[in-house]
Write a structure and sequence with these properties.
Number of helices: 15
Strand content: under 5%
Helix content: 40-55%
Shape: globular
Radius of gyration: 19 Å
Strand order of the largest sheet: 1-2
Number of strands: 2
Order of helices and strands: HHHHHHHHHHHHHHEHE
């Protein structure tokens, strides 16, 4: 089976985010200087292998302290990554996105995109507003990380509980709830393409605002385009046109364009 360049990029990103092998063996969390850097995609700070921070976790932590200072560095980092890459990050640089895509390859009946999935794609903006911004500001609780994030449960919660016997005695309802959320998302991902990315992920919601102006990504030559809609039909995301807020710039549409009107931006 031929592995695409995009798949190699996803694998390399996952390894680079989580190259603290010692952490997996000892169940400890790396807290060195690299943790001051945010990874482009979701990757839990508390993952034993994580060498960098998660932008969502860092943003929530910054908002918890916002009554004392505005988290300019974190906001600037996210804006810079959004301007340069947008949702290209979702398609190429997110380890949890890779896991979802691999699960979708299982030979099971699939739910195709439709009016319902397009409507559900707005849910991630609601989650962004309430769980990433409002609750941390009002209640001083990193709500998304604490109550929802399945990537954190998979990468940090479960490995830390397995590696640390004392933690097993502390398992309660919250951990069980997070495992339930993770299980449901992974199960649905087997039949519905990138469920978390499309409907839940607030980081994808943030990056989607930059998609129209991002430096890296796919583009359409409208002088060549015949408006056949094959690019939209072949895409597994809930796009209405190439490069819109739901586009993860994976490039799947490029080879299906009959007039070669779609390509990656060169500048």
């Amino acid at each position: 089976m031929k592995i695409s360049k995009r798949r190699y990029t996803q694998l390399i990103a996952a390894v680079l985010y989580n190259c603290n092998i010692k952490g997996f063996m000892t169940g400890s969390i790396y807290q060195g200087s690299l943790k001051g850097i945010c990874a482009p995609g979701i990757n839990c700070y508390s993952c034993p292998g994580a060498t960098v921070s998660c932008p969502l976790g860092s943003l929530q932590s910054g908002l918890l302290l916002s009554k004392y200072k505005i988290p300019y560095f974190i906001l600037g980092t996210i804006i810079l990554m959004g301007l340069f890459l947008g949702r290209f990050i979702c398609g190429f640089l997110c380890p949890f996105g890779l896991i979802q895509e691999l699960l979708y390859k299982l030979p099971l009946p699939k739910i195709k995109k439709n009016k319902v999935t397009r409507a559900l794609s707005y849910m991630k903006y609601v989650i962004l507003i309430f769980f990433v911004i409002a609750i941390p500001l009002i209640k001083s609780v990193p709500a998304f990380c604490k109550y929802i994030c399945p990537a954190g449960t998979l990468e940090a919660g479960i490995p830390l509980v397995i590696a640390n016997k004392p933690l097993r005695r502390l398992i309660g309802f919250l951990f069980s709830w997070k495992v339930f959320i993770l299980s449901m998302i992974l199960l649905i991902c087997m039949i519905c393409y990138r469920t978390f990315c499309r409907f839940v992920c607030p980081l994808g919601a943030v990056y989607s605002f930059f998609n129209p102006i991002t430096i890296v990504g796919v583009k359409v030559d409208y002088d060549k385009c015949i408006n056949c809609q094959k690019c939209v039909d072949i895409c597994l995301m809930d796009i209405r046109k190439v490069g819109d807020r739901e586009c993860i710039h994976c490039g799947s549409c490029i080879s299906h364009c009959p007039v070669d009107a779609i390509s990656y931006k060169k500048k």
